[in-house]
């Protein structure tokens, strides 16, 4: 598989994240802040988002499991999660958080529990998709750099990458 085809598949995969509504324009703005002096900027920001989100989800779950739910505390966690989701462009998470806050205001425990499950589902979905995006991007970057220097990466590594991208193409993840 040629490098150009692999890059097009990666671009198609990235576009699909926007088409599914997982990401919004804020993610594009993050990407624009990344440059040669800090090529891992977006990955670092998203990694911090993942770490913070795991903690927030644990705190949120614990708060919702209490006999008497402290809605102010729950609202604080959901507000934080909404803000961090917005900052990386995780649109569907942000939208669930907006609905979640409405139910918090109403003190509707059942609806809040449904939103908690939905926000977890959306979080793990976007996390999986972004991890795939960064994994493929990191695999392609050494090839791009080496190809620009007219120095081959090596047939074994290139072959493995091609097989990996073919796997994604065949499972409709990159189409």
What's this entry about, in short?
InterPro entries: AHP1-5/YPD1, HPT_dom_sf, Sig_transdc_His_kin_Hpt_dom. It is found in: Cytoplasm, Cytosol; Nucleus. By secondary structure, the protein is mainly alpha-helical.
Description:
This protein is mainly α. The chain has a single domain (3-170), classed as Four Helix Bundle (Hemerythrin (Met), subunit A) (Up-down Bundle), CATH 1.20.120. The protein has seven helices and no strands. It has helices spanning 3-19, 25-33, 41-64, 71-88, 91-106, 109-148, 155-170. Helix 1 (3-19) runs antiparallel to helix 6 (109-148). The chain is elongated, with a radius of gyration of 19 Å. 24% of the residues are buried. This is Histidine-containing phosphotransfer protein. One of its GO terms (biological process) is phosphorelay signal transduction system. GO terms for molecular function: histidine phosphotransfer kinase activity; protein histidine kinase binding. It is found in: Cytoplasm, Cytosol; Nucleus. The modification Phosphohistidine is found at residue 79.
Q: What is the number of beta strands?
A: 0
Helix and strand element order = HHHHHHH
CATH homologous superfamily classification: HPT domain
| Estimated share of beta-strand residues | under 5%
């Amino acid at each position: 598989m040629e490098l150009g085809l692999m890059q097009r598949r990666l671009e198609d995969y990235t576009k699909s994240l926007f088409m599914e509504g997982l990401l919004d324009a804020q993610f594009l703005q993050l990407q624009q802040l990344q440059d040669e002096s800090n090529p891992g900027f977006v990955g670092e920001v998203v990694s911090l988002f993942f770490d913070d989100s795991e903690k927030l989800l644990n705190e949120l779950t614990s708060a919702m499991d209490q006999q008497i739910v402290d809605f102010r505390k729950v609202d604080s966690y959901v507000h934080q999660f909404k803000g961090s989701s917005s900052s990386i462009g995780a649109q569907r998470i942000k939208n669930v958080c907006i609905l979640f806050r409405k139910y918090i205001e109403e003190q509707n425990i059942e609806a809040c529990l449904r939103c908690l499950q939905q926000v977890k589902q959306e979080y793990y979905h976007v996390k999986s998709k972004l991890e795939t995006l960064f994994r493929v991007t990191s695999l392609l970057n050494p090839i791009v750099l080496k190809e620009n220097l007219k120095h081959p990466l090596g047939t074994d590594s290139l072959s493995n990458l091609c097989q990996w991208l073919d796997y994604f193409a065949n499972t409709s993840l990159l189409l």
